[in-house]
């Protein structure tokens, strides 16, 4: 398979640089007039996929909101992944998995093995058991042409107590994570290509990346949550990401999903945001 970084660059160029989350939490289901049950979950998910999968670059289902319904919820998630990919969207599974050894390998198999019913184009992972603990996922992604997004400088305020912590060598934890990702993307960078190993960096951070000594030029994509309900706008992106802004994939959930359940309104909101991001990234 063509590496994820190359496929992502193509999708961003063709459809605009935007990732839309699929987050069927109870309050949003209620806003759509749906029950907080399997029927509501399935109706919500199918509506979002049908409205957006042939229009946006990336769809990002949040696994937890499906897991809470048990095996029936996972079945809805499996179908959503397959239908979204069939319609041309890249699927980023927002699972934030992090463990060691055989357990990390099992997570990698669940999301990054083409034989798995949950096989996705990319997955989010947590590096806070040490970046080396992610090696099974990194290797699995390379083998299958998939991608990995590693938490680095997240948009939640609590993240700073870990991510801004300073190591014995004077580097922050976040800077160390980003340096590792730059190493993983080095081969693609030398060829002038976008790497497949990305970082999660909040769009709401302002100058915090600089304060953490973080170099965002990692040669791979930067998933940027925080657009919309968390307060950031596309206009904020250049100030946060600087020269790396062309590699930014802003992630929005409620800012688009609140326009449902009308499919046309969902699509219009997503396309409008994609155009706004494209304008500031060019």
From TrEMBL:
The active site is at residue 96. One of its GO terms (biological process) is 'de novo' UMP biosynthetic process. GO terms for molecular function: orotidine-5'-phosphate decarboxylase activity. It catalyses: orotidine 5'-phosphate + H(+) = UMP + CO2. Its EC number is 4.1.1.23. Pfam families: OMPdecase. Residues 17-269 form the Orotidine 5'-phosphate decarboxylase domain. Keywords: Decarboxylase, Lyase, Pyrimidine biosynthesis. SUPFAM superfamilies: Ribulose-phoshate binding barrel. Pathway: Pyrimidine metabolism; UMP biosynthesis via de novo pathway; UMP from orotate: step 2/2. Belongs to the OMP decarboxylase family. Type 2 subfamily. NCBIfam families: pyrF_sub2. This is Orotidine 5'-phosphate decarboxylase. The lineage of its organism: Bacteria, Bacillati, Actinomycetota, Actinomycetes, Kitasatosporales.
């Amino acid at each position: 398979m063509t590496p994820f970084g190359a496929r992502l660059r193509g999708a961003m160029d063709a459809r605009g640089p935007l990732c839309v989350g699929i987050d069927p939490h109870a309050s949003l289901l209620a806003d759509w007039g749906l029950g907080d049950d399997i029927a509501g979950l399935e109706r919500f998910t199918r509506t979002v996929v049908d409205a957006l999968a042939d229009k946006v670059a990336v769809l990002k289902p949040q696994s937890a909101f499906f897991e809470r319904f048990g095996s029936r919820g996972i079945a809805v998630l499996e179908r959503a992944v397959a239908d979204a990919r069939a319609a041309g969207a890249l699927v980023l599974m927002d699972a934030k998995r992090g463990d060691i050894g055989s357990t990390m390998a099992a997570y990698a198999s669940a999301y990054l093995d083409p034989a798995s019913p949950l096989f996705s184009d990319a997955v989010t992972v947590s590096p806070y058991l040490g970046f080396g603990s992610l090696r099974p996922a990194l290797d699995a992604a390379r083998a299958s042409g998939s991608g990995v997004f590693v938490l680095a400088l997240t948009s939640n305020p609590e993240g700073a107590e870990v991510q801004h912590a300073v190591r014995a060598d004077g580097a922050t934890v976040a800077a160390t994570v980003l340096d590792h990702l730059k190493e993983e993307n080095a081969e693609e960078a030398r060829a002038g290509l976008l790497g497949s190993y990305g970082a999660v960096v909040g769009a709401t951070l302002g100058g915090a990346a600089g304060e953490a000594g973080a170099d965002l030029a990692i040669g791979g994509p930067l998933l940027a949550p925080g657009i919309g309900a968390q307060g950031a706008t596309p206009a904020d992106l250049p100030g946060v990401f600087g020269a790396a802004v062309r590699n930014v994939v802003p992630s929005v959930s409620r800012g688009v999903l609140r326009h449902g359940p009308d499919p046309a309104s969902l699509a219009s909101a997503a396309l409008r945001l994609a155009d706004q991001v494209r304008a500031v990234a060019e």
